[in-house]
Amino acid sequence: CNKALDLKPGNVKALFRRGKAYLALNQLDEAMADMRQLLTIEPGSQAAQQQVQLIKGRQRQQDNKDKAVFSKMFSK
């Protein structure tokens, strides 16, 4: 995907695939950046909007995990 985006930075298919790959690797910030870039090119993309919602859900889960870990750390 990176090579395709080097050749054609606005390639929506490559952005979508790279965003999904980042999501699978739990690299949520990178995944969100690709999906938002895709949505600036194709604002009506339902698939990208669904991925954004999925990423937001994962980010909330990660934030909750982090809060639990830090609250245990500092409560002692």
Structure description:
There is one protein chain. The chain is mainly α. Helix content is about 80%, strand content about 0%. It has helices at about 1-5, 10-25, 30-40, 45-75. It is elongated, with a radius of gyration of 15 Å.
What's the tally of helices?
4
Structural class: mainly alpha
**Helix-strand sequence:** HHHH
| Silhouette | elongated
Task: Tell me, rounded to a whole number, the average pLDDT.
Answer: 92
Radius of gyration: 15 Å
- Residue share in β-strands: under 5%
Largest sheet: none
Distance between the termini: 46 Å
Give the structure's gist in a few sentences.
By secondary structure, this protein is mainly alpha-helical. The chain has helices spanning 2-7, 12-24, 28-41, 46-74. α2 (12-24) packs antiparallel against α3 and α3 (28-41) runs antiparallel to α4.
Could you name the key traits of this structure?
mainly alpha; 76 residues
Topology at a glance:
Layout: H1 2-7, H2 12-24, H3 28-41, H4 46-74
